[in-house]
Amino acid sequence: MSGIGSIMEAGVPSARSRALAVLRVRSRALAVALLPAALAVVLVAARATGRLAGEPWGTVTLVVCAVAALVLLLGGIFAAVVLRASPAVTPTVPLSEAAAPDLYRLVRDLADRMDVPPPSAIALTPDCDSWLEDRTHAAHRRGGIAGGPQSAPGAAPVLVIGSPFLWWMRVAELRAVLAPVVAGTGPSAHPDIADARGFVRGLDAAVDVGSRRGLGWIAAPARLLLTLCRTDAAEMERGVAAAASDRAQGVDYGLRIVAQEQVGLAYAGWDRLLTRVALPAWRMGRWPAHLDAGVVSALTELSRRDRLAEGFTSRLGERPACDLLEQPGVIDEATSLLAARLFHGGPAESGPDWSPVEWTAYPEEVVDRKWRAEAARLHAALDALAGPVGLPAGPTGATGPTASAGSVSPAGAGSPAPAASVAPAAAAGASGSPVPSGPSGTAGSATIEAADAAPPAVDGFAGPTLERVLGCLTGASGEGALGEALAGRLSADLAREERSAGTTGGSGKARGADAVPLFPLQPPRSGRDLLADHVTAMVCCAAVDSAGAAPGMDWLDGPVLLVGGDRRADLAPRVLCLVEDGDAEPLREWLSALGVRTEKPVRLV
């Protein structure tokens, strides 16, 4: 094709020379493997012609032939592993031409304008990136990973598009962003570059196979060969990218500068949406069914807050790129489920313990349940630590009930009495399942009025009250022992729940390797952060139950507390003051202003 030749002249000579350097590594490895066999042939021929008669040449020839046979056997097995091992394939949502005919036409038009082969297929990824991916390896066809024209030998690579781009970008912007990516199909068709890429991918797959199966004699040489060709392979890819970028200069170059700004904005909003909004839902066993639609709201809100992005909202009147899809809602749901699998480790399919949630139901189905579960876990941890750590005596005593500032003594708090166990309620609340009624589940399943009559807990407080939390953490302000112990207990309980959820579903059925996130969104949280989150959840539950507040959702910050329809963003510093310094007065003043009754038991489910 003339386009390939043009690209070669523009910038791929450097990439081709690097590809040949990679292939020389392969040739040298083959030569090393064949060297004993060549030596054995020479010795056998010399013995047959009488040039090496007598001893020790007979023994030497026998030993060399044995070594050559062993090397050839091991080399053949190694080569078979490199050729047959399946290179990694990025999990994506396949997009057929029938599902997006306009998008396919746009991509083919780009390829025609740049005189390069069009991609063999299009797929979507729940990430803010786009690339070309070769799926022609024979192992992919054998394993059923790839199918259709993209898996045929010599087929052009697959174009993978970040799904957030389709919903946020306009059609012209998407076209400008995809131009340099599509231009990469030209260099990909060059035989030397394609051969070098296949060799590197085969070595990478061989390292993975050898490591997983404990075959060090396969993994070690494959890793050595990768090290020898790593620099040349990286430079080859840089040369290919430079050539593709140069080829795309004549396609919407001016618009590409504006589109790249949208790429950065999309990445920022997408990251906030995943970590602040989607992650709490995933941890509750729910996955937002329309993440891509949500990114539009999140980015619009981000544009409104960012003074540098004030003009970006005017773009929303132009045609969005998702109009290129026949059924945007169906595609959005599929990519949302894949996002949960990649970033959280959720199952690949919906089920009773892994169900979708709409944005309108998010506050009640996710936020409220999250707060209740964390409040239940907090009180279960307090119950577990009441004996060993020695919680404060609470508002009871020999001389009668006493109360902290701003609190009312719980009813029935005469003398210490055995507490109704709230651990079962906490465990059930944490998993989102119903709590059984009866003596062991009084605090979690009964109404607030019934919970008022609950006997005092082992530390003297009646039922799961906010006053209990304030009193315990305030009492520990001198040495901080209880706060540290409580933070450690919460960390251990949460880690145990996550391990259990990772191996089995709520129904007890074992989950597969989808239970491990391929790309975790956040590092493990510290014990202090967990304690602050749980105290905040308890405060929010008390505000909802006794002060008429409501759970809400912010597109960039996730779960929020609404009072009178307005978001209250001033709670976090007061909770930190309690958790880190043991000072409850700022939080008590905040609660008093809202009319929250700290002594009233809260509902845990």
Secondary structure: elements and pairs:
Blueprint: H1 2-10, H2 12-48, H3 57-84, E1 93-95, H4 101-114, E2 121-125, E3 131-133, H5 138-143, E4 158-162, H6 163-168, H7 171-182, H8 185-188, H9 191-212, H10 216-247, H11 253-283, E5 286-288, H12 291-305, H13 328-344, E6 355-357, H14 362-390, H15 423-431, H16 442-445, H17 448-451, H18 466-475, H19 481-503, H20 527-547, E7 550-554, E8 558-563, E9 566-567, H21 572-581, H22 585-594
Parallel strand pairs: 2-4, 5-6
Antiparallel strand pairs: 1-2, 3-4, 7-8, 8-9
Helix pairs in contact: 2-3, 2-9, 2-10, 3-9, 4-7, 7-10, 7-11, 9-10, 11-12, 14-15, 14-19, 14-20, 19-20, 20-21, 21-22
Can you offer a commentary on this structure?
With 605 residues, the protein is mainly alpha-helical. It is built from 22 helices and nine strands. The strands form three sheets. Strands 1-2-4-3 form a four-stranded mixed beta sheet. Helix 2 (12-48) crosses helix 9 (191-212), helix 3 (57-84) packs across helix 9 and helix 7 (171-182) crosses helix 10. The chain is flat, with a radius of gyration of 32 Å. The N and C termini lie far apart (66 Å).
